[in-house]
Design a protein that fits this description.
Blueprint lengths: L14 E11 L5 E7 L10 E2 L2 E3 L11 H20 L5 E2 L8 H9 L5 H7 L3 E2 L5 E7 L7 E11 L12 E7 L1 H9 L7 H11 L5 H5 L13 E4 L2 E7 L8 E7 L4 E4 L6 H14 L6 E5 L5 H4 L2 H8 L3 E3 L11 E2 L5 E4 L5 E7 L8 E5 L4 E9 L13 H12 L5 E6 L6 H22 L5 E2 H8 L8 H17 L3 E4 L2 E4 L1 H4 L10
Helix pairs in contact: 4-5, 10-11, 11-12, 11-13
């Protein structure tokens, strides 16, 4: 049964039509144009991909089937490539003077002009025959932003220099496919799945390229059920009984000889089938599953632990406090390391990170500097802190501790992976400080009942579930109580005199 048809499952997030260009230059050697997404980008921040983006009205109607969508998608890919890299691709007619392009591009990005009317005014026309369909990729079922992206191949003799303006992207360059794959294997770059697939295909030769790029099911509109975040580190989103907006929990398979499995969060046989396929591929050379690692005791992270243990004879390791929900074969110690042999040897350090749960452990893969964050981080939004198992003071300390690791890739408990690790962690810390400030500001005029305080503190997020907001507010109140900044008055909350007093005024030097 596909995820969308699971009884009682939330509706899948709508797909947004998009398009992308695979640009291949043949001289002096075969090279591909790739771009690096800004680390602040909420979707695959810091990953390398190909230029492209969402369809705009001026591109034309997205149509129904792929054939009907193709003309608008080509126009979209050409427009987005110019906006992102400054390159005019696949256009006939006399191009404008180079000095005129920055002004055109600036007006487009500022919303003061539209691309296609400007191109027509310049006397240029699109040459559709220079583009060949090269696949249709659909974002896996793990995020709130999902794209239905049509890819097009455009081959050229000369590699024109791209010009990236900081914003959505950080950089763009032409690169030999073998070199790009080496950087991937060395853990120096992150690759979106279509990019990784295309580079592997192009590295094998440019013969019959458009057809070969479509020779996998995922390039024909079948959403991938896993994401290769690094070599030998694969994220497998599994549909679980979790909290919206999440619908999946990210299991992680680390290793390409021996392996470990992190957070198998479902007992559903169909979902586990996908996980088992990834595990079997990782250990195909004769390796074994060394352990099942659990980030914490919540059921959407542990329900499949016994199934993995039974299938592979693998022990289950976690914080001792997770033992009330699943039988543990070993209690982890803070800071201990787990070594995994294979083509890409991996070393995983267990780091106690309470806050979301007292049992929470983050797993840091040291060779690739990849953080398996569990529910310390969600790339779909903020994390619920629910006392007594959750504690806001502990959570903030854990975030600060994790920041010192210098991780360069992040796999959250829920949502897409990211290479903008420090940006994500700083954002969570700043969000909690902002929410705490709203609590203190709301109490400036006097005590408030807890319910009234919740309404005021979460006035900026009217769609937030009241029950979850109430529990997270309680976590903030417990922190402020422990610091002596507020006090309870029956069912109301008030500032303490010290918290409400104005800071002492500095006397001028005499």
């Amino acid at each position: 049964m596909p995820p969308e048809s699971v009884p009682g499952a939330p509706a899948p997030h709508p797909l947004r039509p998009a398009a992308s260009l695979i640009l291949v230059a043949s001289r002096p050697a075969v090279r591909v144009l790739w771009v690096r997404r800004s680390e602040a980008n909420p979707f695959l921040g810091g990953f390398h991909s190909f230029p492209g983006g969402r369809l705009a009205k001026e591109d034309g109607s997205p149509g129904g089937d792929a054939a009907a969508r193709e003309p608008a998608s080509v126009r979209c890919a050409v427009r987005e490539t110019f906006e992102e890299t400054g390159l005019l691709i696949g256009l006939g007619g006399r191009p404008p003077a180079p000095e005129a392009l920055p002004d055109l591009r600036r007006r487009l990005l500022e919303g003061k002009a539209e691309f296609w009317p400007e191109i027509e005014r310049l006397g240029m026309t699109l040459e559709p025959s220079t583009f060949r369909p090269a696949g249709r990729w659909i974002t896996p079922h793990f995020g709130s932003a999902r794209f239905d992206t049509m890819f097009f191949l455009h081959e050229t003799a000369v590699a024109a220099a791209p010009d990236v303006w900081p914003g959505e992207l950080d950089a763009a360059e032409w690169i030999e496919p073998d070199r790009a794959l080496s950087l991937w294997s060395e853990d120096r770059v992150g690759l979106a799945m279509p990019t990784l697939h295309a580079l592997r295909v192009i590295a094998e030769g440019t013969h019959d390229l458009a057809r070969r790029l479509k020779d996998v099911p995922e390039a024909n509109g079948k959403p991938s059920r896993f994401v290769d975040v690094r070599a030998a580190i694969t994220m497998v989103p599994l549909r679980t009984e979790t909290i919206a907006p999440a619908s999946h929990t990210n299991a992680i398979v680390i290793g390409d000889g021996d392996a470990v499995v992190v957070d198998p969060g479902t007992a559903d046989e169909e979902e586990l089938k996908t996980l088992f396929e990834v595990v079997d591929a990782a250990t195909a050379g004769g390796g074994s599953v060394k352990a099942v690692l659990l980030t914490h005791r919540h059921k959407d992270h542990v329900l499949g632990a016994d199934a993995v243990r039974k299938r592979y004879g693998a022990p289950v390791w976690a914080h001792g406090l997770a033992g009330d929900l699943v039988r543990l074969d070993r209690e982890l110690r803070d800071g201990e390391r787990i070594e995994i042999g294979g083509r890409h040897p991996r070393v995983i350090r267990a780091i106690f990170a309470p806050g979301h749960s007292r049992s929470h452990v983050a797993f840091f893969e040291e060779t690739s500097r990849t953080l398996c964050a569990g529910d310390l981080v969600s790339t779909l939004g903020t994390v619920v802190i629910d006392p007594p198992d959750g504690a806001m003071s502990d959570y903030l300390v854990s975030l600060e501790r994790i920041r010192t690791l210098g991780a360069t890739a992040l796999i959250p408990g829920h949502g897409p992976p990211s290479r903008g690790v420090d940006h994500a962690l700083r954002g969570l810390i700043e969000h909690r400080r902002m929410r705490e400030s709203r609590v203190l500001d709301a109490l400036e005029d006097g005590p408030l009942a807890v319910e009234a305080l919740r309404e005021e503190v979460y006035r900026d997020t009217p769609g937030a579930p009241a029950a979850l907001a109430a529990r997270t507010l309680e976590a903030h109140l417990e922190k402020l109580l422990s610091e002596g900044r507020i006090r309870r008055e029956g069912r109301s909350v008030a500032l303490t005199p010290a918290a409400g007093a104005a800071p002492p005024r500095e006397e001028p030097p005499r």
